[in-house]
Amino acid sequence: xxxxxxxxxxxxxxxxxxxxxxxxxxxxxxxxxxxxxxxxxxxxxxxxxxxxxxxxxxxxxxxxxxxxxxxxxxxxxxxxxxxxxxxxxxxxxxxxxxxxxxxxxxxxxxxxxxxxxxxxxxxxxxxxxxxxxxxxxxxxxxxxxxxxxxxxxxxxxxxxxxxxxxxxxxxxxxxxxxxxxxxxxxxxxxxxxxxxxxxxxxxxxxxxxxxxxxxxxxxxxxxxxxxxxxxxxxxxxxxxxxxxxxxxxxxxxxxxxxxxx
Amino acid sequence: xxxxxxxxxxxxxxxxxxxxxxxxxxxxxxxxxxxxxxxxxxxxxxxxxxxxxxxxxxxxxxxxxxxxxxxxxxxxxxxxxxxxxxxxxxxxxxxxxxxxxxxxxxxxxxxxxxxxxxxxxxxxxxxxxxxxxxxxxxxxxxxxxxxxxxxxxxxxxxxxxxxxxxxxxxxxxxxxxxxxxxxxxxxxxxxxxxxxxxxxxxxxxxxxxxxxxxxxxxxxxxxxxxxxxxxxxxxxxxxxxxxxxxxxxxxxxxxxxxxxxxxxxxxxxxxxxxxxxxxxxxxxxxxxxxxxxxxxxxxxxxxxxxxxxxxxxxxxxxxxxxxxxxxxxxxxxxxxxxxxxxxxxxxxxxxxxxxxxxxxxxxxxxxxxxxxxxxxxxxxxxxxxxxxxxxxxxxxxxxxxxxxxxxxxxxxxxxxxxxxxxxxxxxxxxxxxxxxxxxxxxxxxxxxxxxxxxxxxxxxxxxxxxxxxxxxxxxx
Lengths: 261, 476
Ligand code: SF4
Known about the structure:
- By secondary structure, chain A is an alpha/beta fold.
- Helices cover 51% and strands 11% of the residues of chain A.
- Chain A is globular, with a radius of gyration of 18 Å.
- Chain B has 2 domains: 14-304, Rossmann fold; 414-475, no CATH class.
- Chain B is 47% helix and 10% strand.
């Protein structure tokens, strides 16, 4: 994947939070915004944003997905970069929107213009801001999980890793079958729960086997799945403490580097 | 044109079958080990990502080009084969293909057949048809032979018996082959198999094989294999019948080397296979070996359906290397039999709906997390995840009388459609979304503790008490 550089260092960006972060992981979104602001970027949060449309798209309900996706096209009138703290949603907007609106010339033009401005969060930090985090905390060992679409469509495994490697006190553990899917896959987890369960079981086992203190990821869909299964295991086995805590990479970075100010 | 599958495992039990496998620790470990091994072998063949990319672009172009000219190339292939003395037969259905092959057997009074490995012969369930007609058809590929003894179908298109352990094979040989003692020594097992099969080759009066590439400009059939059984099946008996799908045609002989390289490196991680057979004509006067008669059966069996659709046509680019299954985390967890189709794994999910119709395969397009591993390794660059998404639109949409795909709408549920419409209404209207998400967060204590499919192995999904948009307001 070729790294893309925005022309010059942007002073303003749009933030597309994604429906999962808005409703389930708001702290991750807030931490991402704080980090960007601490780096001197003004962050704009279009109030009318909802969802990129991916859940319906991958489920095969394209009229419905298009109806939702179309509403996101108008949210970003200024030519600023659009930062998305989730690789799969960023991939949807960057790679699938243009062909998704192939039949509608107006929307297609908008989608194409938007596509070039979409940045996954860690990609934006590394390639656009040239962010150099200064670690301010003690030694820890973490493990990085990258979602499949973030890896394939956005190259986020490289940028996420690059950020973690810049933190002096942080050791990044290497899990077995690192690139293997955690089994989330949106509605896949609901349509084929047994297969999805077997996949997340193996993923959690591989992450735990590293002995890392926590799992860090730039994708909240995977986190819901991985952390949800780990917590369920804890509950089954009567553990009070989480055996595998985890958080969004934005929260982790912000904390390691001294918080919002 | 709807046709009852012959002896296929009914695909409707997909969920039950896959559940049984994922709960079997032994199978989980053995599939995982086998797939790790195959992935490592392939990776060693493509140390240079750029070389792989450029080679697979070439492979993709060759396959696309052949498909774009498919009708013309098939005509050219037939003309050149006939000129070379090879007889050509066209079969629209598996029944027709079986009839054609059995008629050839009958014409020659052939009762004993040796078979090289052929997935198309599995697809038409030839062995059942042969048995019914009193023809003894012996599989001579070691994996296929093991399965024939066990009465099973292949679980992988390249390594058909990959689900079998050494111990199972040892027991099977002891039970089914007279005079054989139990041994788990792999070399000894192979020797036993060879001894039996050698005799079969000598006695056979007809041989059947598949085809990897059929070259139109020369009228040549190419067959890739490792055991030499393909060569024996196609040269020792006095009649050789090859069978293949109509999509296997390629335009030129010079297209073979890149495809062959992609195939062997992707499939088994080999630079080149032990045998590569080029069959161009029957035995000529004065020649000492080779069959006196060679036939080619070209099978449609639903392939014209994806051919007619520009996007779905890409399905037919497949060169059957099996890499997509080796890299698929779903296949790794459920194995090949769970799919219930001749072709399992990602390629099975995209091709089977055309061969069997979407009614029989309704569960398959959704049986993927769309992780994309298959598309990444496919040596002819088939966008498998995109095709799966496309097939999902076909399965779940309301049945429509002029549908182009057999079984379109097989998974249609008014209830599911209503849920997605409601979702689109909410997420497509920012004001409604604000109200909905506000209610979901403020009333999050009402979130059900049991969420179908999700909470069987996970804690419930509960909206946070404050949305990001609320936190942002508080922050300002
Ligand atoms: S779809 Fe691609 S990877 Fe899968 S068997 Fe066919 S050629 Fe190989």
